[in-house]
Amino acid sequence: MKVGIIGCGKIAQVRHIPEYCGNGHAEIAGYYDFNMERAKGLAGQFGGKAYGSVEELLADGGIDAVSVCVSNHAHAEITIKALRAGKHVLCEKPMAVTLADCIEMAEEARKAGKLLMIGQNQRFAKAHVRAKQLIQEGAIGDVITFKTNFGHGGPETWSIDPGANSWFFDKEKAVMGAMADLGIHKTDLIQYLLGSRIVETTAKVVTLDKRDASGSLIGVDDNAICIYQMENGVLGTMTASWTYYGAEDNSTVLYGKEGIMKLYDDPDYSITILTKDGDRILYDIDKIQTNDNQTKSGIIDEFVEAAMEGRSSAVDGSDVLNAMRAVFASIESSEKGVTVKVTGGAA
Ligand SMILES: NC(=O)c1ccc[n+]([C@@H]2O[C@H](COP(=O)([O-])OP(=O)(O)OC[C@H]3O[C@@H](n4cnc5c(N)ncnc54)[C@H](O)[C@@H]3O)[C@@H](O)[C@H]2O)c1
């Protein structure tokens, strides 16, 4: 499968490109970035061609699929153009910056008969996959409540163009902050783990501390705290933060009738189960990926395999749409100071 990389920044360089290179069925054929030197540099290093525009890359009939790794506001436009050009698309999260765009993306994929996958890599983390099985097997009994967290010190040291004026803080380019950057991962994950969707949210999505180079608070949220009501009756909190200075928290804790399950909470054991009877069961499955510890995500292999087999994926656009509905509903809840119902199923 011949692939084009659109947006040649950090996530393209640390995840998409190495994982395509490591997949025996994929070959990177083209690159496009606003920063032409960046695209040319990668073409020189990994092979393939640097294109002068998105349209030029998409017009190349030899390219079967693209990774969309640009800043958030351009996800929808480029994804829709790529689907209309007959390409399979792996679009990075957050899927898009408006619900209408997310719905249109999912509809375009269906019309085009092409695969649209969203970069929800947390679903492929080994301990999350194992935890879902364990929950289904009743390892902690019926889940009653949960807390799921994703926080670190912020994206300004991560971006290929780092600094306090990062696009991640720009209302025009990022549109949303920690909620859509990190919160979407855990919002999507909790629905996956529990096999149930979020039907109601009560949230605060706020900017508390993070400042741009001029010293002003950034234009997007740096913290989000949401209470999620799941369709199956489970209740829990989802926290996303760019102000956990000093250490990353990527943990989820599920409280069931028979015990407690902790995921990526202990640095040595990716799953810990504490039973009601006092037993402590430890699983050393893997270490969570962090900004500083980029292990193979598995999402590229899934994309290549699903596209080649002509099948859908668990993280296809219509599935991730419901997590995006919860993100937009949480922002609305915070703005209006009310609980908001998360309505609508898949597109
Ligand atoms: N799945 C994950 O865990 C994960 C992790 C990090 C980033 N991301 C997502 O990946 C996307 C890219 O983030 P990043 O960390 O690579 O950012 P980055 O700042 O490192 O790189 C962005 C790149 O895109 C280019 N670009 C921006 N808009 C463009 C456009 N319209 N056309 C062409 N090029 C464009 C920039 O020039 C830059 O090279 C974001 O949406 C981000 O949320 C996902």
Describe this structure in words.
- With 347 residues, this protein is of the alpha/beta class.
- It contains nine helices and 15 strands.
- It has two domains: 136 residues, 3-Layer(aba) Sandwich (Rossmann fold), CATH 3.40.50; 194 residues, 2-Layer Sandwich (Dihydrodipicolinate Reductase, domain 2).
- 32% of the residues lie in helices and 22% in strands.
- Helix 4 runs parallel beside helix 5, helix 6 runs parallel beside helix 7 and helix 7 crosses helix 9.
- The longest helix is centred in the last third of the chain and has 20 residues.
- Bound molecules: nicotinamide-adenine-dinucleotide (NAD).
- Nicotinamide-adenine-dinucleotide binds next to helix 1.
CATH topology of the largest domain, anyone?
Answer: Dihydrodipicolinate Reductase, domain 2
The averaged pLDDT comes out at: 96
Largest sheet: 9 strands, mixed
Q: In which range does the helix fraction lie?
A: 25-40%
Number of strands: 15
CATH top level assignment of the largest domain: Alpha Beta
Query: What hetero molecules are bound to the protein chains?
Result: nicotinamide-adenine-dinucleotide
> How much strand content do the residues show?
15-25%
Basic shape: globular
Rg calculated over all Cα atoms = 20 Å
CATH homology group of the largest domain: Dihydrodipicolinate Reductase, domain 2
Structural class: alpha/beta
